[in-house]
Write the structure tokens for this entry.
Amino acid sequence: MSDPTQAQYEALWPRSPRQAKVKSLARRLDTLEGKTIAWVWDYLFRGNEIFAHLEENLKARYPGMKFVPWSEFGNTHGSDEREVVAALPQKLKALGVDAVVSGMGC
């Protein structure tokens, strides 16, 4: 018999079973030369400034690169983020995008 002065409580593990399956990563690009890169932004921090600097430097290093501006996609953290994110795969494919840089957060 347990000591009646010592309270005991059942505890539950705080983590639930995994809801998402682990997926393998996409294959890395062998080069950035001639590739089309999309800037996707959540309209937080200073992505517009940072993407402009990145683009300038990448163009200098890989003159054949093309870029799709963040304004093409919409806010990935706004009131319509579900619709924006759901539309991304089709839009990226239609625009011939090879890779995405998604940012920024705070």
About this structure: The CA atoms of residues 42 and 79 lie 11 Å apart. The mean pLDDT is 89.
